[in-house]
Design a protein that fits this description.
Elements (H helix, E strand, L loop, with lengths): L10 H21 L5 H8 L3 H7 L3 H26 L2 H21 L1 H9 L8 H19 L8 H13 L7 H15 L5
Helix pairs in contact: 1-2, 1-4, 1-5, 4-5, 4-6, 4-7, 5-7, 5-8, 5-9, 7-8, 8-9
C-alpha cells in the first residue's frame, strides 16, 4: 500500500492547534509540569478532546511547544531581513533569541519528561539556529554593515551566555545593554 501524505488541517483545526500551542507555552513556562492538560484546553477555549486530537500525550504537547518556539525564532530571520536593514534585523533577532531561551528555561522540567519518553526535541535546534544567524550575518556582510569574519557559532555562544542573565525582569535592561555591545562588536568599521 503506497504511503499517503497527511491532509492539511482545516482552518479551524489549525487555529485550535495554534491556540493550544500559545496557551501551553505560557502555562508550562509559568506553572511547569503541575499545569493540567484540562487547564490548558480550558484556557485555550477548546475541549480536552480537541487537545488530545492534536497532542495525544503531555509529552507530545511539550515537544510541539518547543518545536513551535524554535520554528518561530528561526523563521523570524528571513522575515526580519525583509523588513529591516541587515544589522537591525540581526539585533532584533538577538532579542527574539533571548526570549526563546527564556521560554526554553521555563519549559526545562517539561522537556526533561519528553527526553525520558525517548524523544529528542533538540536534535535539529542547533542546525536551525546556525542557519538563521548565518543568513543574518551574511546579509550584513554583503550590505557592508556587519563584519565578514564572524563565526555564527561564536555569536550563538555569546547569545546563549547572555540569555542566562535574562531570568528576572530587572535583568532584562542589562541583557539589552549586553546585546547592544555584542552588536556593536559585529558592526563593520572601514579602516
Amino acid at each position: 500500500m503506497p504511503a499517503t501524505t497527511p491532509r492539511p488541517l482545516r482552518a479551524d483545526a489549525r487555529r485550535n492547534r495554534e491556540l493550544l500551542l500559545e496557551t501551553a507555552v505560557r502555562a508550562f513556562t509559568q506553572h511547569g509540569l503541575e499545569v493540567t492538560l484540562e487547564a490548558i484546553a480550558k484556557e485555550a477555549g477548546v475541549g480536552i478532546g480537541t487537545l488530545y486530537r492534536h497532542f495525544p500525550t503531555r509529552e507530545a504537547l511539550v515537544e510541539a511547544v518547543y518545536r513551535n518556539e524554535l520554528a518561530r525564532l528561526c523563521d523570524a530571520a528571513p522575515e526580519l531581513l525583509r523588513a529591516l536593514p541587515p544589522d537591525e534585523a540581526t539585533r532584533a533577532w538577538m532579542d527574539r533569541f533571548v526570549d526563546y531561551m527564556t521560554t526554553k528555561r521555563g519549559l526545562a522540567d517539561a522537556l526533561r519528561a519528553v527526553f525520558a519518553s525517548g524523544a529528542n526535541p533538540y536534535e535539529e535546534s542547533r542546525d536551525r539556529m546556525v542557519a538563521a544567524i548565518t543568513a543574518l550575518l551574511r546579509a550584513g556582510g554583503e550590505a557592508g554593515t556587519v563584519r565578514k569574519d564572524v563565526e555564527p557559532q561564536d555569536v550563538l555562544v555569546g547569545l546563549s551566555g547572555m540569555s542566562l542573565a535574562a531570568g528576572e525582569p530587572e535583568q532584562r535592561d542589562q541583557v539589552r545593554r549586553l546585546l547592544d555591545l555584542l552588536m556593536d562588536g559585529l558592526r563593520y568599521r572601514p579602516e
